């Protein structure tokens, strides 16, 4: 996995956890750590958003692998041993 994809994955996880906390406890961890509306908080939000956009380029690759893996599994299941 490339460095950009690794960083994107980490940022997506951070964003998902933050949104989970917002939904569950009304706690915005990014705003708590960096200040509500601060420049640093906004930078984190922008980076998480960009990571999501970058993930759009990863998605077809993952889905293509998944389709290929499923196809091989189905092909193996349809073979008979003699």
Number of helices: 3
Main sheet makeup: none
End-to-end Cα distance: 41 Å
Overall morphology: elongated
Helix-strand topology string: HHH
Q: Report the β-strand fraction as a percent range.
A: under 5%
Structural account:
- This protein has 82 residues and is mostly helical.
- The chain is 83% helix and 0% strand.
- It has 3 helices and no strands.
- α1 (3-25) packs across α3.
- The chain is elongated and about 40 Å long.
- The model has no long low-confidence stretch (mean pLDDT 84).
Keywords for this entry:
single chain; about 80 residues; mainly alpha; 3 helices
What are the SSEs and their pairings?
Elements: H1 3-25, H2 29-34, H3 39-77
Précis, in short:
This protein has 82 residues and is mainly alpha-helical. It has helices spanning 3-25, 29-34, 39-77.
């Amino acid at each position: 996995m490339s460095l950009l994809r690794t960083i994107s994955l980490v940022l997506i996880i951070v964003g998902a956890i933050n949104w989970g906390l917002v939904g569950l406890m009304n706690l915005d961890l990014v705003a708590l750590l960096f200040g509500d509306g601060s420049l640093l908080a906004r930078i984190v939000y922008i980076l998480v958003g960009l990571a999501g956009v970058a993930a759009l380029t990863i998605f077809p690759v993952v889905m293509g692998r998944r389709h290929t893996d499923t196809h091989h599994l189905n092909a193996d299941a349809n073979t008979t041993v003699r």
